[in-house]
Amino acid sequence: MTTRRMKSTGVLAAGVALSMMMTACGGGNTDTKTGASGGGDTSGATLNVVLVDNVNNRGISELAPEFEKATGIKVNVNVLGQDVAEKRMQLDFIGKTGDLDVAYMSFTLMQKWVKAGWVHPLDDFVKASPDVNIDDFAKAPIDSLSINGKLWALPSFAETGLMAYRTDIFEKNGITAPPDTWDQLKEVAQKIHSKETSAVALRAKRGQGINMFIFPSMMWGFGGSYFKDYPNDMTPVLDRTENVKALEYYMDLVKNYSPSGAGNYSFAEVISAYQQGNAAITVDGTSIITQLFEEGKSKYAAQTKVALVPQGPSGRSPMIAVHGLAISESSKNKEAAFKFIKWATSADIQKRIALKDYNLDFTRVSVSEDPDIKKKYNFDNGNLIKLRTESLNIARPDYRPLIPEWAEIGDLIAAQVNGAVNGGVGAEAALKEANKQVTEVIKNAGYIK
User: Fold this and answer.
1) Is 1 part of any domain?
2) 200/146 same-domain check
3) Is residue 284 located within the same domain as residue 424?
């Protein structure tokens, strides 16, 4: 997952008033703007919601009193750090206490949660609620939160990868176009790298949502893969030649063309390096890229442009991270929980949060096409929104394998990749060790003998 800290926000402005307020007893009324629907009588219910701390979820928390007023449903929203939130949710799932109603689910955790029976499918709720307008969600996020034709969460956050670069640095060095391939990016880095401004800033710190958010883009582009034939043959092939070449490339960028200490950069350090002028290029998620355009915080916002993530010999593979709102299987208030999820992921709420703060990771097509949104995010002459949509549409749902064991596997690979980037071991040796460790996990899980 790709959460990040942003400035504290005040209470969101009321914005567009709710046009059709539900009665306190439900009565079947529907608020067509927010998606709060009457259905059965759920007034008086109390929901406990756990969200991971990011700008979108803080916005949901701040707007929750409007939902309470419209529905008569009380909502306790807990916005927590990623690790704390995941532990809090898992403890409730395992204990089957029923204290948790709505959970913030990453697509990398979905398989594990579904296999364990911790979350409730949403298909019947969606079918009974045409006002969800399911076709308004972008296809990639819906696909990423579905297993075997069942939908397990409504998409709340969808991040994809882009490249940002400094036009003034490029022009100074006679570079007229952004690099389209990884080889071209290396050539540009060699030209522009200097003591004053490093060429590149990338996430490299250990983490399945940190270096393993970035490295797979190179891995897939170079023709690599995790498994021999996912999902049919799950034999790990992390030490194959293409993966080794991708890791050697990644190591070279971080070691030779990035700021000092970049081997342990997370997203916060990437943002700071670029905003302060210590790096001229970054390849990262849209939640990071958007912040590089913030006037007053980013010194070179006016000199920043965007492009698609570079491609390799096997094509272009932009990063993707999708999070959604799911119903706990143990919840005693499933209908009320779905009403909250429908409201929180509605076009109106997504638009209002995006207009209040810098949040481009909304999941509804109508929001990306909204004139007010296009006006606010008219960065690089509108290319930011245009390329974000294009990148999201071509991203692989299996960018990080959608299996229950991914969190463990991702961390094992991340540790070896980080060790190689920081000079502890060579690329081939690192991936051989990763392959050995991942093979053990895959065997224990029963995928292979």
Assistant:
1) no
2) no
3) yes
**55 & 183 share domain:** no
Q: Which of 280, 279, 288, 275 is nearest to 260 (CA)?
A: 279
Q: Are residues 237 and 355 in the same domain?
A: no
Same structural domain, 136 and 285 = no
**Residue carrying structure tokens 């529905």:** 71
> How far apart are the C-alpha atoms of 64 and 83, rounded to whole Å?
23
Peptide bond into 310 cis (omega under 30): no
- Bridge-based pairing of strands 279-285 and 198-201 is parallel
Q: pLDDT tens track of the chain, all 449 residues?
A: 333 333 333 333 333 222 222 322 333 333 333 334 445 677 789 999 999 998 899 999 999 999 999 999 999 999 998 889 999 999 999 999 999 999 999 998 999 999 999 999 999 999 999 999 999 999 889 999 999 899 999 999 999 999 999 999 999 999 999 999 999 999 999 999 999 999 999 999 998 889 999 999 999 999 999 999 999 999 999 999 999 999 999 999 999 999 999 999 999 999 999 999 999 999 999 989 999 998 888 999 999 999 999 999 999 999 999 999 999 999 999 999 999 999 999 999 999 999 998 889 999 999 999 999 999 999 999 999 999 999 998 998 889 998 999 989 999 999 999 999 999 899 999 999 999 999 999 999 999 99
Domain count, the chain: 2
Q: Are residues 58 and 127 in the same domain?
A: yes
> Phi and psi at residue 234, in whole multiples of 5°?
-95, 25
- CA–CA gap between residue 402 and residue 145 (Å, rounded): 10
**Domain containing residue 126:** 46-159+321-376
- Residue 180: CB atoms within 10 Å: 15
Decide: residue 283, CB within 10 A, 0-12 exposed, 13-18 middle, 19+ buried: buried
Report the amino acid identity of residue 443. Answer: K
Tokens matching residue 360:
């481009």
Residues 193 and 308 grouped into a single domain = yes
